[in-house]
Amino acid sequence: MENPANTELKLLDLLRSRYSPRAFADRPVDAGDLDLLFEAARWAPSCFNEQPWRFVVATREDPEAHATMSAGLVESNRLWASKAPVLLLCTTSSTFAKNGKQNALAEHDLGLAMGNLTAQATALGLSLHMMAGINRDLLRESYGIPEDVAIVCAAAVGYAGPAELLPEALADRERAPRLRKPQAELVFSGRWGTPRSAS
Questions:
Q1: Torsional sign, CA 99, 132, 128, 16
Q2: Sheet-wide strand order for 127-131
């Protein structure tokens, strides 16, 4: 299923075609394509080149690992995300390795890595849906994640499938038009709250 961004501006096709489906086709993701996703993330910029992000990956090729990751999703996400062929847990270290000081940009840098990963996924015809609805305590225990590592989100990765694969309420959300706030609410100039004049 395609659901491109509704914009009159000339966005890159890669950005325009990216969306976050809940319906995933029953089709595995090639291990080489996964390598490309994580390589794209590896080359994201980060403060002091710290690269604070770490990922835990579970694929359907290892049913036990996939079930462990699925169990860490809240029920409303597990309903659809457990069908995705790949699940990721996205984490970041909260301190700099070189001096132990707090890294205030760690989650920002994880976001940049996920942006790269998402763009690479889209270029490969894959889709990705990030989820904040996870059981962090359970996932920390399941994977032995240290306390100084922040568990930020999870993501489902795979090939987008038809909305008909979903329960009716979710299928309706899948087919709904994609909405974004106008730039005037997001970009200011001169003073806070004063919209930048568009060209």
A1: negative
A2: 53-59, 86-93, 149-158, 127-131
Residue where the block lists tokens 């462990």: 68
Average pLDDT over residues 27-48: 98
Q: pTM of this prediction?
A: 0.92
**Where in the chain are the domains?**
17-166
Long-range contacts of 135-142 (CB under 8 A, 24+ apart): 135/71, 135/72, 135/73, 135/74, 138/71, 138/72, 139/69, 139/72, 139/89, 142/68, 142/71, 142/72
Q: Please answer whether residues 154 and 134 qualify as being in contact, where contact means their C-beta atoms are separated by less than 8 angstroms.
A: yes
Side chain identity at residue 190, one-letter code:
G
Q: Please check whether the domain covering 17-166 is classified as CATH 3.40.109.10.
A: yes
pLDDT tens for each residue of 83-100: 999 999 999 999 999 999
Residue 32 confidence class, pLDDT cut points 50, 70, 90? very high
Sign of the C-alpha dihedral, residues 46, 47, 49, 52?
A: negative
Mean pLDDT in residue range 130-151: 97
Q: What is the Cα–Cα distance from 82 to 169, expressed in whole angstroms?
A: 17
